[in-house]
Design brief:
By secondary structure, this protein is α/β, with parallel strands linked by helices. The protein is built from 20 helices and 16 strands. Catalyzes the attachment of tyrosine to tRNA(Tyr) in a two-step reaction: tyrosine is first activated by ATP to form Tyr-AMP and then transferred to the acceptor end of tRNA(Tyr).
């Protein structure tokens, strides 16, 4: 039905730890596969178009038996048991077996977390998974990030009141590239404590794309109990809702369960982690491993961490403009930094424990300082913003955010340049005016023309109160007009009304 095409490989990401390869290839002619049978529409709309699949270049050949965790080749216990660390910091919700604690102290574990490519970038809600993976890395274990190229075609019903919208192959390919780059960059930047604790990025479409429906029912379906599947919390909630649940969504837990089985057999993965809403999907995997492989004792474990919530119980990670994206292409490091800088006092200490790698002693000291009379407001928030921005965007991104934050503070002595102003142009209102329109125009008139104020009277009122700024310099008189030297690098102007309201004026 579909013609095969030669695989084309390009290096997407490389480091001294690993090399990640992306392959664009056509889908096999074998039909019907399990995914094709689940898909509700004509298969050509999705399953017979090129996809992106990402694999570790040192991917080993499949093995027929479950891998046994190798003994430690280095001393990671000096950094503490990873479960103790997660528990102390509020990052441990549930584990499938208490044996995981002793296993993490004596063996080198391989831990995976799944990320479905439902958007071009991961968001703040996904960050906890990366942080927990990083904690395992820092304690001498190995991390696996699994891109859900197959499961994204089905849609995880966990925590959802409606079925996810379908994504076409081009969108999935674009999303896969975006989140693979983000995960690889973050994990590689922060893999500094142990050179051996490298990571792998895999795509589950690589083992699902040719899995035939009859083979799936024979190898996996026979071990799945319908009553147990219907008893999962994510299923019960959807069945009780007006929308109900499709069979496609109902099978999601089996797909994720088989992922764990496959990774355990072929990649030596011992642990699956996820948010607390993933408990049912994770235990589906441990059950399949127990029933199909029938190992002696506990060899596969599940671990969940709490969802990222604010003290009022609402989800943390949304702003007025939408999701807090981890990709700098979708949200600038400056705006990312500012989001964490605005965290309320009631949440900041808990987020320092959950979202940073600061020593607990330092966090406890900061909490004590917050209660003292001489505490400088937002000191804890500044530390939180710096640490999380550093983890996600690296030193370069943090420096960019700090420079912009300092330079764009009204009254700051830092000299503005065109690049710094352009760095926030997407995050604040902007307009374009001709050079002749701007030159010799009064700041009062310009601030109204640029949309900073609705009227000249409002602009004059704030000017008299000392709150009107041009390029961070306070305007003291109504007679101030725009001169050639006011135009930063001959390209832009920055108008500010108080500390927060700004407008970038581009000179055309």
């Amino acid at each position: 039905m579909a013609a095969t095409a030669a695989a084309r490989a390009t290096s997407l990401y490389s480091s001294h730890h690993h090399r990640l390869l992306c392959f664009s290839s056509s889908i096999s002619t074998k039909f019907p596969t399990f995914l094709n049978c689940l898909h509700k529409h004509h298969p050509k709309t999705l399953f017979f178009s090129p996809i992106i699949r990402c694999l570790h270049s040192t991917h080993q050949e499949n093995s027929s038996s479950a891998a046994v965790p190798p003994p430690r080749t280095h001393d990671a216990t000096s950094r503490g048991n990873v479960l103790d660390i997660l528990e102390e910091r509020g990052l441990l919700e549930s584990v499938t077996s208490d044996a995981l604690r002793s296993a993490s102290a004596s063996d080198t574990l391989k831990v995976y977390c799944g990320f479905d490519p439902t958007a071009e970038s991961l968001h703040l809600g996904n960050l906890l998974g990366i942080i927990v993976l990083s904690w395992f890395q820092r304690c001498g274990h190995k991390a696996v990030a699994l891109i859900g190229g197959a499961t994204a075609r089905i849609g995880d019903p966990s925590g959802k009141s409606l079925e996810r919208p379908e994504l076409d192959a081009h969108t999935l390919e674009k999303n896969t590239q975006g989140i693979t780059s983000t995960i690889s960059t973050i994990l590689d930047m922060n893999n500094t404590l142990n050179a051996d604790a490298n990571f792998v990025v895999l795509n589950n479409y690589d083992w699902w794309k040719e899995f035939r429906l009859l083979d799936f029912l024979k190898q996996v379906g026979r071990y799945a109990r319908v009553g147990t599947m219907m008893g999962k919390e994510s299923v019960k909630k959807r069945l009780e809702s007006e929308q109900g649940m499709s069979y496609t969504e109902f099978t999601y837990q089996l797909l994720q369960g088989y992922d764990f089985l496959y990774l355990h057999k072929n990649e030596g993965v011992n642990v699956q982690i996820g948010g607390s809403d993933q408990w049912g999907n994770i235990t589906a995997g441990t059950e399949l491993i127990r029933k199909i492989l029938q190992p002696e004792g506990d060899v596969a474990f599940g671990l969940t961490f709490p969802l990222l919530l604010k003290s009022d119980g609402t989800k943390f990670g949304k702003s007025e403009d939408g999701a807090i994206w981890l990709s700098p292409a979708m949200l600038s490091p400056y705006k990312f930094y500012q989001y964490f800088f605005s965290v309320p006092d009631a949440d900041v200490i808990r987020f320092l424990k959950i979202l940073t790698f600061m020593d607990m002693e330092q966090i406890d000291e900061l909490e004590r300082e917050m209660k003292k009379p001489g505490y400088v407001p937002n000191t804890a928030q500044r530390k939180l913003a710096e640490q999380v921005t550093l983890f996600v965007h690296g030193e370069e991104g943090l420096n960019e955010a700090l420079k912009a934050t300092q330079a764009l503070r009204p009254g700051a002595e830092t000299k503005l340049d065109w690049k710094t102003i352009e760095g926030i142009a997407e995050d604040v209102p902007s307009c374009s005016l001709a050079y002749d329109e701007v030159l010799n125009l009064s700041v009062i008139d310009l601030s109204v023309s640029a949309g900073l104020f609705e009227s000249k009277s409002a602009a004059r009122r704030l000017l008299k109160q000392g709150g009107l700024y041009l390029n961070n310099l306070r305007i003291d008189g109504e007679g101030k007009k725009i001169e050639p030297e006011d135009i930063v690098d001959g390209k832009v102007l920055l108008l500010s009304a108080g500390k927060k309201n700004k407008v970038v004026v581009r000179i055309s």
